[in-house]
């Protein structure tokens, strides 16, 4: 019977043996030796780092493809950024004889409202099983002013991690509407720019990596309360904004001035493509402070959603709105069918409202509310939504005991 050469313990399912040249060492002794060499605190961290699964950029993009339609370039940039970030956390310490320190790569999403910025961040966080805190930059103010302190974002992150500080310190923070806190023009009045440049300066502190004292339950800081310390060095910060007017700044930089005679007319799609040429200086000219732009290393640009994209968003993702409604109806024994023309009309309405993909939900609710009111009494029916239902508000077709229609 094999025994450990150090403690004479017998091999078991709970205490495995490693066999060498006429010697054996048990699992417990390996861990004890590790503690002697590196200390108790580093055992769990290094074990975690060694066994933590790091998903490749292709694997990450495939997950995003299941939930986000289009935006291929943005998904690639985001996948590479997330891969490098977590590789930096879990693998850089395993490289021997190398004292090179890898800096954190935060990400900036630039794209119109409803193009998928928040959805991408949420999908990635859910897949990686890390906490995510989503904050609206327009609600943030400098410390001491009415509004929400910037550091409260970290409180949200800690709450999403169920109070686990170590888990929170590897989470994701998504700051939306970052373009709305661009600093005012240089000719601004003497009044404070409470939710502009001051907020950018406050964000800079937590984005670049520092130890921040936060009130664990949120709210304002006061001298007599206890604080929780969070190290933001390994928190991935993702910022997003529509940046209306940024294309004009890019045009001026590349020579296509927006003013003057004899200008070549561009169509809208060509203008949309210009956003891919964005450079850090364009963002500084827009109103972001240079220090903040310097901490947002990767730019992911998202395009305006087209009508065909809208139809795909309605039907193809794993959590597509149409799939959700069909499941709700099937629970009551009702089959729900949408004609292709009806889906196209819904997509047109969403584009007209200029709210992006998020407008699809409200349009569907408007169409389906009356039907769902009667749903419990419609068991055994097929509900057919036609183009006239969407355009003119007529009643859907109720078909008794119908087989699946094309």
Report what the structure shows:
By secondary structure, the protein is α/β, with parallel strands linked by helices. It is built from 17 helices and 14 strands. The strands form 5 sheets. Strands 4-7-10-3-11 form a 5-stranded parallel β-sheet. Helix 15 (about 340-355) crosses helix 16 (about 360-375). The termini are far apart.
Concise description?
The protein is α/β, with parallel strands linked by helices and 406 residues long. The chain has helices at residues 27-38, 40-51, 57-67, 72-90, 117-128, 152-160, 165-168, 197-207, 246-254, 268-274, 280-286, 290-295, 307-315, 321-331, 340-353, 359-374, 387-392; strands at residues 17-19, 24-26, 106-110, 132-136, 140-141, 148-149, 172-176, 211-214, 228-231, 236-241, 296-301, 335-338, 381-385, 397-400. Helix 15 crosses helix 16.
